[in-house]
C-alpha cells in the first residue's frame, strides 16, 4: 500500500461554504522527495480572514490561484503515478479537517475520491503506540512546521518514518 501524508490550508472551517486554498502531499518513502502542491482558487465568496491569514496568502492572491477541478485532476494523476499497489492511503496530522476538504473536493469536482472512504490520523496512531492520549508526536518532525502544506506534510511524514524505523510501527512502505 502507498501512504500519502497530506496537509491542507483553508479559508474557513468547512468545505463548500469555505474554500481549500492550498494543499500538499508527500509519498511516504525513505526519500520523501515525491511531492504534490496545489493552490486552488476559492469556490465561495465566504472566507474567514483569520483562517486565511494562516495560509500566508491574501484574498486577492488566492483569486489568482488555479481552477480547483484542474488541481484535483492533477492530484489524482499524481496519486495514480505513485500508488504502487492497491488504493492509496490518506494520512495526516489532523485528518478530521484535512480529510473532509480533500474528500469533498474530490467528490465535488471529480465524482470520486481515489483514497476511498478511509483515512488515518497520525496523532492518534502515535498516542496508541505510546499508550498515552496526552502525548504528541510533533517533536518527531525535522522539517519546521511553516503552514506551507508541503513542508507540513513532509514534517509529518518524517515523524511517521521515525515511528516505523525507531519505534517499531509495522507498516510496509
Short description:
The protein has 173 residues and is of the alpha/beta class. Helix content is 39%, strand content 16%.
Question: Explain this structure to me?
Answer:
This protein has 173 residues and is α/β, with parallel strands linked by helices. The chain has one domain: Ribonuclease H-like superfamily/Ribonuclease H (Nucleotidyltransferase, domain 5), CATH 3.30.420. 39% of the residues lie in helices and 16% in strands. It has 6 helices and 5 strands; from the N terminus they run E-E-E-H-H-H-E-H-E-H-H. A 5-stranded mixed sheet has the order 3-2-1-4-5, with helices on both faces. Strand 2 and strand 3 form a beta hairpin. Helix 3 packs across helix 4. It is globular and about 45 Å long.
Shape: globular
Biggest sheet details:
5 strands, mixed
CA radius of gyration: 16 Å
List the helices and strands in order.
EEEHHHEHEHH
> What is the β-strand count?
5
Describe the secondary-structure layout:
Elements: E1 3-10, E2 20-27, E3 35-39, H1 49-55, H2 59-62, H3 68-82, E4 89-92, H4 95-110, E5 119-121, H5 122-130, H6 149-165
Parallel strand pairs: 1-4, 4-5
Antiparallel strand pairs: 1-2, 2-3
Helix pairs in contact: 3-4
Features:
173 residues; alpha/beta; 5-stranded mixed sheet; single chain
Amino acid at each position: 500500500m502507498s501512504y500519502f501524508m497530506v496537509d491542507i490550508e483553508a479559508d474557513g472551517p468547512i468545505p463548500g461554504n469555505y474554500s481549500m486554498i492550498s494543499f500538499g502531499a508527500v509519498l511516504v518513502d525513505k526519500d520523501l522527495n515525491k511531492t504534490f502542491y496545489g493552490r486552488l482558487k476559492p469556490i465561495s465568496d465566504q472566507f474567514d480572514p483569520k483562517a486565511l491569514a494562516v495560509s500566508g496568502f491574501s484574498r486577492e492572491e488566492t483569486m489568482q490561484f488555479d481552477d480547483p477541478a484542474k488541481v484535483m485532476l492533477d492530484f489524482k494523476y499524481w496519486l495514480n503515478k505513485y500508488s504502487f499497489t492497491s488504493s492509496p492511503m490518506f494520512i495526516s496530522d489532523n485528518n478530521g479537517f484535512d480529510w473532509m476538504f480533500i474528500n469533498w473536493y474530490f467528490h465535488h469536482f471529480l465524482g470520486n475520491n481515489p483514497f476511498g472512504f478511509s483515512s488515518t490520523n497520525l496523532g492518534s496512531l502515535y498516542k496508541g503506540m505510546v499508550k498515552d492520549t496526552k502525548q504528541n508526536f510533533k517533536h518527531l518532525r525535522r522539517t519546521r512546521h511553516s503552514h506551507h502544506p508541503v513542508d507540513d506534510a513532509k514534517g509529518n511524514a518524517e515523524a511517521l518514518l521515525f515511528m516505523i524505523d525507531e519505534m517499531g510501527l509495522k507498516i510496509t512502505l
